[in-house]
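hey m, so remember when u said the tokens were messed up on ur end? i reran from scratch. heres the input so u can diff it against urs
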Amino acid sequence: MNPREIVAKSWAITKGERQLRHWGYASSLLETLLNVKLLIYQVWFLISYIEGDPIGFFTVEATLFEYVPLWFFITFVIGLIILICIEWLFPNMGKGAIIGLAAKSYQKEEVKGGLVLGIYNFFPIFAIHEFFFLSRISMVITLISLLLRYGGGMAPVGIAIVIIAFLFSNILRFFFVFSEEAVVIRKLGIGKALKASFKLVISYLGHVVFLMLLSLLISIRVFLNVLMVLLIPGIVIGIGFLLSLIFSQFLTIIIGLVLGLILVGLASYLFAYIEVFGQTVWTLTYIELSKLKELDVIEVK
């Protein structure tokens, strides 16, 4: 199957398999919520940094503690910690389910068992994902923010190191791109999955054009994600400002929160299609390349 057929088949699976889209939507929704919270916090820090009085790491919590009752503060902090943990961990389970269900659909098997696939493959996928934690934009922004707060005179050097590590980590991520598929489909351990992915990419670098296409697809997805995450708080703040001229402050906050959740839900619906489609392309590519003869194997007759 050539790259064009794989892309067409992946899109057909994405549109045809509702279970895949459900997992993709849940993962995208939680990831978007996490990114929105990160952006709001970092924008606040950036404004304070430009003004010459950067906020501390727990300024948000300290400010909240000052203006709300103690019971509300404790409930809010506990709920926020639980939500952040879910937003951080669930997408790894979702990825295992999407890979497994996409492979089942491609193999003409019954598309079910997403929860089992997600739970069973959670820990190895989580380990692989965190192994490349420096390849994530959100992590780089957080580290740079911490360096600007507490790095002092070493902040520029630290930021340069973080950026170099980000680039190097993404290069490694390219060669280990099939490791998660190897874990879910071939049931390989983490080390063997990384090794198998590296060997597969090196063996078939002739497919580099196709891999570049996939990288472009992911880049578009990241761009859309960043764009929507930037727009959502801006839209909510703008409408909130207009509503504050008409309604009370409490009612304005409630309407703004509801509107924000609706916008996040709509953005996540778009991301779900892109997430499932991109992951399905990688999954089908792995299955097809795995069928080919390994180039370091010499059959002597």
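this time it looks ok to me. Residues 78 and 221 are 32 Å apart (CA to CA). if urs says something different then somethings off w ur setup not the seq
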